[in-house]
Amino acid sequence: MGHAKKVVLAYSGGVDTSVCIPYLKHEWGVEEVITLAADLGQGDELEAVREKALKSGASESLVADVKLSFVKDYAFGAIQANALYENRYPLGTSLARPLIAKILVETAEKYGADAIAHGCTGKGNDQVRFDIAVAALNPNIKILAPAREWGMSREQTIAYGEKFGIPSPVKKSSPYSIDRNLLGRSIEAGVLEDPATEPPEEIYLMTKEISHTPDEPEYIEIGFTRGIPTTLNGEPKSPVDLIEQLNLVAGNHGIGRIDMIENRVVGIKSREIYEAPAMFVLIQAHRDLESLTLTSDVTHYKRGIEETYSQIVYNGLWYSPLKAALDAFIQKTQERVSGSVRVKLFKGNAFIVGRSSENSLYTPDLATYGAEDKFNHKAAEGFIYIWGLPTRIWSQQSRK
Ligand code: ARG
Predict the structure, then answer these.
(1) Scanning 77, 111, 261, 355, which has the fewest C-beta atoms within 10 Å of its C-beta?
(2) Which residues span the domain enclosing 379?
(3) Cα–Cα–Cα angle for 225, 331, 288, nearest 5°?
(4) Are residues 287 and 388 in the same domain?
């Protein structure tokens, strides 16, 4: 088929991406497969993953620790954008794909590869994200997606792999399809495919069931600098530490479970379960600090930007002119979003119970109902007269 000579393959260590190695070589005539596994905080034993790629026939097996970049360059922007796809999903998987695509392209350029490959099937969102991101970063690199074309069932895939020394999964493989990184977990398939069925407790790893969470609330304080979380309980934290620690603290109170029916890019609806304790808390806290520090019109206008931002990130357009333009808007709005937010964690809830900022636009002597009130009550009458004038005219006209 003459697809490509040298290929950089996005590698996870699972059966599908492992089978991609012999498949690319033997079915598609690829001469050399270089694998690249990204460490995004998924908690896999990456040295074993690295070795498995070599055993499966890779000529070179690379592991890249990109956790810091993942949080700094991808998650933090999403927090500043209060990004929630369809108002709920904090985009943990969606945010990782453009970063993986970036290191795939860099590796392909460095090794003189003419294509990159991934193990996505033709039904998901991730293929869309990979393909478009690679095209945006280097339109001359070919994209190979064997699993989108090979048409093998799970059993056939395993059998194909066995022919080339790829061991079939030792433990009875999980009925679920799971994606995990620092920002959270996504769980699909198995019994979850019936949208009427409650998810079994066994699928959760980062969040406790409410009946097992502490019976006392826990208070935490999150400090933000220009819209970026920088401290936890007054202590400066590195980006990765902050996310990891907040995942543990909030997950312990059962916070950040999401069960939703989601509209995929490829047109179908899917049932998704997420756990994203840190992102869930951070977005709520960040949004609250914005209400204190942004003017009313910026706050309201930004809501529309956030909706669009979430959609384009979900839809695979991370590297796009629209995304860059929205980023410029969002960055400008964040200049004064510094301060701290107090959050009460209790029984699956993250209640925002206090916020403060040097840049607070909250004006006590205007807001108070007490004697110190400086608000000019008399000015309200003229304001309301003019503000309501169009409505008054409309009413008079329609009574004629
Ligand atoms: N639906 C989510 C997204 O498209 C997560 C998909 C992750 N994959 C999985 N096998 N659980 O971003």
Answers:
(1) 261
(2) 365-399
(3) 55
(4) no
Please indicate whether residue 188, judged by its CB atom, sits closer than 6 Å to ligand 1: yes
Asked whether residue 85 is assigned to any structural domain, the reply reads: no
Q: What is the pLDDT of residue 256?
A: 98
Is 316 a member of any domain? Answer: yes
Residues 226, 337 within the same domain? yes
136 and 224 assigned to the same domain: no
Residues 168 and 182 in one domain: no
Residue 174: its pLDDT value, please?
79
Pairwise CA distance, residues 171 & 75, whole Å: 33
User: Does any ligand 1 atom lie closer than 6 A to the CB of residue 179?
Assistant: yes
CB of 327 shorter than 6 A to ligand 1: no
Statement: residue 314 has pLDDT above 70: yes
Tell which of 175, 195, 213 closes a domain. 175
Query: At 2, is the pLDDT very low, low, confident or very high (cuts 50, 70, 90)?
Result: low
Give yes or no for residue 103 CB within 6 A of ligand 1: no
> Domain boundary residue among 175, 203, 228?
175
Question: What percent of the chain shows pLDDT beyond 70?
Answer: 98
Instruction: Give yes or no for residue 21 having a pLDDT over 60.
Output: yes
Indicate whether 348 and 384 sit together in one domain.
no
For the question of residue 327 being annotated catalytic, the response is no
User: 186 alpha carbon to ligand 1 midpoint, in Å?
Assistant: 6
Angle at 327 between CA 79 and CA 140, to 5 degrees: 110
Return d(Cα 103, Cα 187) in angstroms, integer: 25
CA distance 308 to 86: 10
Residue 179 designated active-site: no
* Separation between Cα atoms, residue 369 and residue 375, nearest integer Å: 10
Query: What is the per-residue pLDDT for 154?
Result: 85
